[in-house]
Design brief:
With 207 residues, the chain is mainly beta. The chain is built from two helices and 13 strands. The chain is globular and about 45 Å long.
């Protein structure tokens, strides 16, 4: 089966700024912890799985990384917006779990436990609004880091990333989903494109 999804994401996690996960470093939080707990909310502006339209669906991807990413044993879970159809939610579950191949199929080699798919209201404000919400689970606000000229700080060509280049910043708020509880610190945002037709390269500049 072939699939593609594209749009915008905003993510937050427990790591101290900057998160070391994109370059496969050991996670560190502000209290000296060595795990990364995070949430990325994706708005699908355009997408499909073998003709099933996935456009205008929002979903949240939760992670627990116990060490640097290439060490594996990740825990990941999915929440699909309750406004999406059941067939759309099932399709995203298949994609994010890795069962449909593509970049998430490659990343699934690092999954220690896939925590499954749940349904709740998921919303991502536009990137000027700087917020993400998963009803009853997560409420985070994002602010970019800026350079001397006032423009947002960006990272590109990371070993692991949801996009080849992404804006980085800070987040505030709390999250409690799938038994993964954290206070947010680091954040990032970018436009993304994922496809089953992409080269089979786990992590490298894609996810």
């Amino acid at each position: 089966m072939s699939w593609t999804i594209s749009g915008t994401y905003v993510a937050g996690c427990s790591c101290a700024v900057l998160c070391s996960c994109p370059y496969d470093g050991q996670p560190r939080d502000a209290k000296g912890g060595t795990e990364c707990l995070g949430t990325a909310v994706f708005h699908v502006a355009d997408g499909n799985l073998d003709g099933l339209d996935l456009s205008d669906v929002d979903f949240a991807f939760y992670n627990h990384f116990p060490s640097n990413l290439s060490s594996g044993n990740w825990k990941v879970g999915l929440v699909v917006d309750s406004a999406a159809g059941d067939d759309q939610a099932e399709a995203l579950d298949r994609i994010l779990s890795g069962r449909e191949g593509g970049p998430f199929g490659q990343l699934s080699q690092f999954y220690g436990e896939y925590l499954g798919m749940e349904r709740a209201r998921v919303s991502l404000t536009d990137r000027d609004g700087r917020g993400l919400t998963v009803e009853g689970r997560t409420e985070l606000s994002y602010e970019p880091l800026t350079g001397p000229d006032g423009s947002p700080t960006r990272i590109k060509n990371a070993v692991f990333g949801f996009a080849p280049e992404f804006e980085v910043g800070t987040t505030t708020g709390r999250s409690d989903a799938f038994g993964l509880n954290y206070e947010a610190s680091y954040g990032e945002t970018a436009d993304y494109v994922f496809s089953s037709e992409e080269p089979a390269e786990a992590g490298h500049g894609r996810v």
